[in-house]
Design a protein that fits this description.
Distance between the termini: 21 Å
Number of domains: 1
Number of helices: 8
Structural class: alpha+beta
Mean pLDDT: 90
Shape: globular
Number of strands: 10
Strand content: 15-25%
Radius of gyration: 19 Å
CATH superfamily: Catalase core domain
Oligomer: single chain
Low-confidence stretches: none
CATH topology: Catalase HpII,  Chain A, domain 1
Helix content: 25-40%
Length: 315
């Protein structure tokens, strides 16, 4: 979404969002002009080709028929834009679908399937605890251990991150949108779903030794080289929820055997400069898609807005 600063200002001043972004700035300092999370990233031009398989479940225009232009941003997870790719274990993929009438909607994914905490309050406590641990000169492993001891719901996500191996490419990761959404059909039927981006090139990782031999910015360079050989593509899978699957707790996974739809194919064509005012807010949904009751998902709107204002103020 390319946004108006005045519109953002009216929605951003949630006190907890201000406290959250303050705490995130404590992780690696303030970097003017950059996001407060996923600071380091690169943008690309893409086209999404919906398969039509999702059409019986939703009226969302980007999941019907006809190609949809897209802006794609790959990123590391750190708040430090200078951090080397190896030192930022999780990666992100944000896709903004550009619909007619200057309407945009985004899917924001990461390379682990569940979130750290259930509520915004716990998230703020966790980030503050990490800041305190860093001030005490704890190692990364010790910080993970401390977080797991104090935030029991974080154990699953921290274990997933610990398992992550360095990716060979941004193009060879599986990306999860983590939160539950609802698809709404033309007759009003609602179905809880999750979204995942599956790499058409397959999943490929590096050993720590191999990654340590790569340049600090190897992932962006690898994408440059890969795109010279041809487009990069992902399949959008929609995971269909069943009764009893949690919709309000992003720390809880769904069973792997849930039915899936191949909703379409994202084809990434070329690198671009990041468009001014780019904001990929996962809560900016269109008709045919609704937010679940996940409190972290709803909180992201205010937190993204606060980060956006500080980024545009270059502070």
């Amino acid at each position: 979404m390319n946004v108006n600063d005045n519109d953002i200002a009216r929605t951003s001043k949630c006190p907890m969002a201000v406290d959250m972004i303050d705490a995130m700035e404590g992780l690696s300092g303030i970097h003017p002009g950059y996001r407060r999370a996923h600071a380091k990233g690169a943008c690309y031009r893409g086209v999404f080709h919906p398969s039509g398989e999702a059409a019986p479940y939703t009226t969302a225009p980007h999941l019907q028929g006809g190609a949809v232009d897209a802006i794609v941003r790959f990123s590391g997870n750190s708040s430090d834009p200078a951090l080397g790719d190896l030192l930022s274990p999780a990666k992100g993929l944000a896709v903004q679908f550009q619909l007619p009438g200057d309407v945009n909607t985004s899917l924001v994914g990461v390379t682990f399937p569940v979130f750290f905490v259930r509520t915004p309050e716990s998230l703020l406590d966790l980030v503050r605890a990490v800041n305190e641990a860093r001030a005490g000169q704890l190692s990364v492993l010790d910080m993970f251990k401390e977080a797991a001891e104090h935030f029991s719901e974080s154990k699953r996500s921290l274990l997933e991150i610990k398992r992550l191996l360095p990716p060979a490419s941004y193009a060879t990761n599986r990306y999860f949108t983590i939160h539950v959404f609802y698809l709404v059909a033309a007759d009003g039927r609602r179905r809880p779903v999750k979204f995942e981006w599956m790499p058409d090139a397959g999943i490929e990782t590096l050993s720590l030794i191999e990654a340590a031999e790569r340049p600090a910015d190897y992932l962006e360079q690898e994408m440059t080289d890969r795109l010279q050989r041809g487009p990069v593509s992902f399949t959008l899978q929609i995971v269909l929820g069943e009764p009893g699957d949690p919709t309000d707790d992003s720390t809880m996974p769904w069973p792997e055997e849930r039915e899936r739809l191949d909703a379409g194919r994202l084809v990434i064509e070329a690198a671009i400069h990041e468009p001014p005012g780019l904001l990929m807010d996962p809560t900016a949904v269109v008709d045919g898609v609704e937010l679940s009751d996940d409190p972290i998902l709803h909180f992201r709107h205010s937190a993204y807005a606060e980060s956006y204002l500080r980024r545009n103020d270059s502070r």
